[in-house]
Every structure is written in C-alpha cells, then in structure tokens.
Amino acid sequence: MGEEERRVAVNESLFREVNERIGELGELYDAGDVEFVCECADTDCAERLTLTLGEYERVRAEPNRFFLVPGHERPDVERVVETNGVFAVVEKLGEAGAVAEDADPRGD
After folding, report:
1. Residue 22 in domain
2. Partners of 90 in the beta sheet?
3. pLDDT-above-90 percentage for the chain
4. Which residues have CB under 8 Å from 86's CB, separation 6+?
5. Domain-embedded: residue 35
6. What's the pLDDT tens digit per position in 82-93?
7. Alpha carbon separation from 67 to 1, 2, 3, 29, 73 (Å, rounded)
8. Considering the entire predicted model, what is its pTM?
9. What domain range includes position 29?
C-alpha cells in the first residue's frame, strides 16, 4: 500500500474513533438524531452529518465502511455503496480496507 492510501485509511479511522464516542453519548442520552463528524480523508474537513443511531449502527456493522459528506469520496481507495442525499457510505478497498478493519474499535 502506498503512503497516501495508508494516510487516508488512518485519518478515516481516527474520525471513526471520535464518532464512536459521540455515538456512545447519543445512546446515553437516548438521542434520536445525532450530529457526527464527516469520516472523510481530509484532515481539514470540519463538516457535520446528522444520522439516527440506527443509521450509525448500520454503517458500523461493517468495519471497512465509513460515512461522509457526498462528494468527499476518494475513488482511488474506496467505493460508494450507498448514498441518500444526506450522507454517503463508502467501503475501503484493498489494503486500505485491511487497515480500516485492523483499526476498528469494535474489533476483537
């Protein structure tokens, strides 16, 4: 894997870690909709997305999937598997997918 692909996978995994804590707080306070950070590869991205906890859990069920603002995709390392106008779900490909799975905070 190239250095750029590894950087992309690591950045997205860090955003996922932040969102895990946000999701835990949403569950603690029984929130319906929760504001999460975009999990794109751009470290300067500060955009927010509102998901239900159910939508969040559905994305988290696959360790190599991330949600992001539509248009923030990186086709060189991920493919869009879903979009709904509010957020896109991407699946990491190849070695970037393996890095994402290894960094999954819900992994064994």
Report:
1. yes
2. 66, 80
3. 50
4. 49, 50, 51
5. yes
6. 999 899 999 988
7. 22, 23, 22, 22, 10
8. 0.84
9. 3-102
CA distance 58 to 15: 17
CB 6 within 8 A of CB 100: no
pLDDT computed for residue 107 by the predictor: 76
Compute, in degrees rounded to 10, the torsion defined by CA atoms 82, 74, 105, 97.
90
Do the Cβ atoms of 81 and 89 come closer than 8 Å? yes
In a domain, 108, yes or no: no
The pLDDT confidence band at residue 30, using thresholds 50, 70 and 90, is confident
Please say whether the beta carbons of 1 and 95 come within 8 A. Answer: yes
Tell me if 107 is assigned to some domain: no
Say how many domains are in the chain: 1
So what's the pLDDT on residue 94? 78
